[in-house]
Every structure is written in structure tokens, then in C-alpha cells.
């Protein structure tokens, strides 16, 4: 019997099935700027209507949150996580997401699983007025076990050069506003899985995996709304490393983000993780978002306008002078 690619563990037909299952949904994310569809060697996106455009790009994955999705066979939200991790990052600089590409790797491709993951990306792209213009599905037997998947993405956005948000406007007296997270988002899951090894145990009346798999919140809509009326001095996406590691990335030397942790609305699932894992509070703040998915820094005179524009936002601190860039009280 002669060897074939299929006998080596790669089923091209399953790949074709995946494309068939996602093709029409992906096309719904396209706009007049997308110049070709699925199937070309490269994807084309035309840029127009900007005076001095700057492209802002970001890439990320889902991490070991994927393990919970695979073990519970719940794949619909993971694609949202993948897109959100990339799009929320570039949003910190005021960038509007233009297009997104995905990378899906596995040991043995199941077109139903792959399609469900990508359709999550499609829904997230639609929410952000972003085009899903390409991707790669890699079937890699021997590298991944059958049933294993890895998911990553790449997002490109655009912003006018004179509207870039980089933290340089942040000054003493500015207010720090928190935008709530939807849960753990996509960070800290190696520790989460250690604390909650049984994904089917009951938590607040439902299997705990439902709480753990709530997708990363997409912040484009609220931030875009805010940018219409408020001069935002800085934005930080609170991902791995929590407030402790991410807020200092936008703070200049000599300034400090002084945050009152008693004001932070910590989700019950994180309080449960803290208790079960016997984790110190500062370790929690240095690992998880603790209920704050994004931080916005504005002039103290504009803080009220932010809170009126975004009903679920709330103030957690202010910018002070200090040699340390962050101080959690």
C-alpha cells in the first residue's frame, strides 16, 4: 500500500469541509475595503479616508483557557477570546480594528470544532466592525494529540497620527476609571485550572466551566463611544500580570497610578479562587484582572463625563507623583 498524506495523519478533505462551513459567515464580516475573499495567497485591504494614518497591530492567543473548552467540548466562545485579546490591545492606542487573521493548529482536524471556533471570531469581528480576511488551519499529527487545538490571531487597526493614545498626556491629578471585565478573560488559566480541576462542579447554580468560559469582553464599542466626547489620556488593557504589571506601561517616569483597591468590584469567582487557592491578595492583583478589564485615564474635569457615558464604569484612583509607577492601597 502506497503512502498518502492522509495515511500520515493529515486529512485535506476535512480542511475543505472547514472552509465550506465558515466561508459564508466570514464573508459577512467583509466591507468595500476588502478586495478579495477566502482562497487567495494573500488578503487585500484598501485604506482610504485618513490624512496621516498609522497602522497598529497586535497578536495573541487564548492560552490554557483552551483546555477547559476542549475538555468540556464548548468551543463557541474561544474564538471571541482570541479576537478580543488582540483587538483590545490595539484599542489602547485609539486604533479602530480593520482586519483580523487567525491561526488554528491541531493534531487531527474536526471541521465541526474548527468551524465553531472560527464562527466565534466572526461574531466578535462583527461586533467590532472588523473584517476577518484570512487564516491558516494547520493539522500537525505528532506535534499535537488528537483533540488538542491551539488558537492564535493577528489584528491590524488604524488611527490618525495626531490621535494616537500613548499615555504621554497623563498628568498629576488625572482620574483612573475602571471598565469591568467579564471574568478571568484569557489570563491566569494555568493557575485557575489548578484551583478548579473539576470543570463540571457546581458554582452559583451552574457548572463552573460556564463561568470560566465567559468570553473576554470586547471594549471597542464603549471606548469608541467615549473617544467621541472625551480626550482620553491613557488606556491600559488589563491582561496577564493584572493591574500591577499593565497600568505602569502607560505611566511616565515620576508619575504613579494610585489605586484604591477597596473600590474595585471583584467577581465572586475570583474571590472563590483566592480562598480555595490560599492566594495572597497582592498575588491575585498581579495575576488576574480582578474584575477590571480595562483602565482609562482622563483629566479630573472629564471623569464625570466618562461615568455618564459608560454606566458600568467607576473611578478607582488618580495619578500622583511617585518614583513607583503604581501604588495599590
Structure characterization notes:
Residues 54-159 form the PurM-like N-terminal domain. Keywords: ATP-binding, Cytoplasm, Ligase, Nucleotide-binding, Purine biosynthesis. It catalyses: 2-formamido-N(1)-(5-O-phospho-beta-D-ribosyl)acetamidine + ATP = 5-amino-1-(5-phospho-beta-D-ribosyl)imidazole + ADP + phosphate + H(+). Residues 171-323 form the PurM-like C-terminal domain. Pathway: Purine metabolism; IMP biosynthesis via de novo pathway; 5-amino-1-(5-phospho-D-ribosyl)imidazole from N(2)-formyl-N(1)-(5-phospho-D-ribosyl)glycinamide: step 2/2. Strands 8-10-5-11-9-12 form a six-stranded mixed β-sheet. Strands 1-4-2-3 form a four-stranded mixed β-sheet, with helices on one face. Strands 6-7 form a two-stranded antiparallel sheet. The protein contains eleven helices and twelve strands. It has 329 residues and is of the alpha+beta class. Helix 1 (12-27) packs parallel to helix 4 (111-127). The longest helix has 17 residues, at 111-127. The model has no long low-confidence stretch (mean pLDDT 89). It has helices at 12-27, 65-72, 78-91, 111-127, 189-195, 208-212, 220-227, 242-246, 268-276, 281-285, 303-309; strands at 53-61, 96-106, 131-139, 149-160, 175-180, 202-203, 206-207, 232-237, 255-259, 292-298, 314-321, 326-328.
List the helices and strands and how they pair.
Elements: H1 12-27, E1 53-61, H2 65-72, H3 78-91, E2 96-106, H4 111-127, E3 131-139, E4 149-160, E5 175-180, H5 189-195, E6 202-203, E7 206-207, H6 208-212, H7 220-227, E8 232-237, H8 242-246, E9 255-259, H9 268-276, H10 281-285, E10 292-298, H11 303-309, E11 314-321, E12 326-328
Parallel strand pairs: 2-3, 9-12
Antiparallel strand pairs: 1-4, 2-4, 5-10, 5-11, 6-7, 8-10, 9-11
Helix pairs in contact: 1-4, 3-4
Amino acid at each position: 500500500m502506497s503512502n498518502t498524506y492522509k495515511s500520515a495523519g493529515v486529512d485535506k478533505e476535512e480542511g475543505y469541509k472547514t472552509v465550506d462551513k465558515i466561508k459564508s459567515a466570514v464573508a459577512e464580516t467583509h466591507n468595500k475595503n476588502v478586495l478579495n475573499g477566502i482562497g487567495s495567497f494573500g488578503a487585500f485591504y484598501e485604506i482610504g479616508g485618513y490624512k496621516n494614518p498609522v497602522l497598529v497591530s497586535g497578536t495573541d492567543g487564548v492560552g490554557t483557557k483552551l483546555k477547559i473548552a476542549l475538555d468540556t467540548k464548548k468551543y463557541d466562545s474561544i474564538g471571541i477570546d482570541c479576537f478580543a485579546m488582540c483587538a483590545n490591545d490595539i484599542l489602547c492606542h485609539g486604533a479602530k480594528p480593520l482586519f483580523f487573521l487567525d491561526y488554528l493548529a491541531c493534531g487531527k482536524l474536526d471541521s465541526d470544532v474548527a468551524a465553531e471556533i472560527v464562527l466565534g471570531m466572526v461574531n466578535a469581528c462583527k461586533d467590532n466592525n472588523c473584517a476577518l480576511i484570512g487564516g491558516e488551519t494547520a493539522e500537525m499529527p505528532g506535534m499535537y494529540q488528537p483533540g488538542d487545538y491551539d488558537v492564535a490571531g493577528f489584528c491590524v487597526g488604524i488611527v490618525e497620527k495626531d490621535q494616537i493614545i500613548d499615555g504621554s498626556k497623563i498628568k498629576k491629578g488625572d482620574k483612573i476609571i475602571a471598565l469591568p471585565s467579564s471574568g478571568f478573560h484569557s489570563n491566569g488559566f494555568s493557575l485557575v485550572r489548578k484551583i478548579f480541576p473539576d470543570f463540571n462542579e457546581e458554582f452559583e447554580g451552574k457548572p463552573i466551566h460556564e463561568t470560566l468560559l465567559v468570553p473576554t469582553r470586547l471594549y471597542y464599542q464603549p471606548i469608541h463611544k467615549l473617544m467621541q466626547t472625551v480626550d482620553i489620556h491613557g488606556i491600559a488593557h488589563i491582561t496577564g500580570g493584572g493591574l500591577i504589571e499593565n497600568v505602569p506601561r502607560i505611566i511616565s517616569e515620576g508619575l504613579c497610578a494610585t489605586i484604591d483597591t477597596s473600590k474595585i468590584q471583584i467577581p465572586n469567582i475570583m474571590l472563590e479562587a483566592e480562598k480555595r487557592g490560599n492566594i495572597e491578595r497582592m498575588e491575585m492583583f498581579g495575576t488576574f484582572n480582578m474584575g477590571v478589564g480595562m483602565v482609562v485615564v482622563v483629566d479630573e474635569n472629564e471623569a464625570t463625563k466618562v461615568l455618564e457615558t459608560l454606566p458600568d464604569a467607576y473611578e478607582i484612583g488618580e495619578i500622583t507623583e511617585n518614583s513607583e509607577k503604581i501604588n495599590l492601597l
